[in-house]
Amino acid sequence: MKIAVTGKGGVGKTTLTALLARAFVDQGYRVLAIDADPSPCLGQALGFPAEALARLEPIARMEALIYERTGAQPGTIGGYFKLNPRVDDLPDQFSVEDRGVRLLELGAVEMGGAGCICPESAVLRALVTHLLLRRDEVVLLDLYAGVEHLGRATADSVDAMLIVVEPTRRSLGTAAQIKALALDLKLPRLFLVGSKVQTDDDRRLIEAGSPGLPVIGYLPLDEAVRQADLEGVAAYDLSPSLREVATELVLSVQRKTTELLSA
Ligand SMILES: Nc1ncnc2c1ncn2[C@@H]1O[C@H](COP(=O)(O)OP(=O)(O)OP(=O)(O)O)[C@@H](O)[C@H]1O
Ligand SMILES: [Mg+2]
User: Fold this and answer.
1) 113: which of 129, 151, 224, 260 fits an S-S bond (Cβ 3.0–4.6 Å)?
2) Ligand 2 center to residue 252 CA distance, Å?
């Protein structure tokens, strides 16, 4: 199953992705978590040990690799380079693993069809397409904002897109924009996940303000998220209640996606 996580800045995308990753592992899946944020922090949210994170380098920053694969130096625009570079060996070579989750960082490059046309984006686009199409594992893609950087080929192979919203009108407004873009890309299975939710009023605000998308679950506002960050551990390990919510969310996204796929 391939799941993309998106939403307005700061709503809790990375927190949710990390919780889902660990919950999928506990359900017996192999998980590949992809951090598409230009300033990556999924590894921290997952509680990866510092030495593993130190070994991790964003693919987009690997100049020698990009040159080797595309025949052009990163940063060049125009000119000739391979648009379909070989990438199948990259995930194993450049990811780090901790307790069943493998983590890959993409680095700061646009991936969208209409985005920048440069050697590093060619490598990243090929890589994401490869990961989404060919790997028989759960892939979680933590997108830093919107879906612009999802090209058509990648969008086609995402099974579900989760749009994270806080109980605020702004984040619901962003969800509506993301929905429009996602529909342009023909992404069919879009769901909202409420984040930092405290009260029934918060839930009602999200349900009433949803841009016509089903809400598949809610993450409570939980002090354990901040505490985990301070301690350098995963919120999943610190909070039994978050663990429970994450497990329910995994079941819910699987159920809803299967329902829609078989409809
Ligand atoms: N359920 C929660 N309970 C309490 N705090 C939370 C929760 N989820 C996220 N936060 C806090 O909100 C902030 C943003 O969270 P996070 O990094 O997960 O969001 P994001 O959407 O990935 O942000 P960005 O757009 O910067 O990538 C962090 O300080 C985090 O600790
Ligand atoms: Mg994030």
Assistant:
1) 151
2) 22
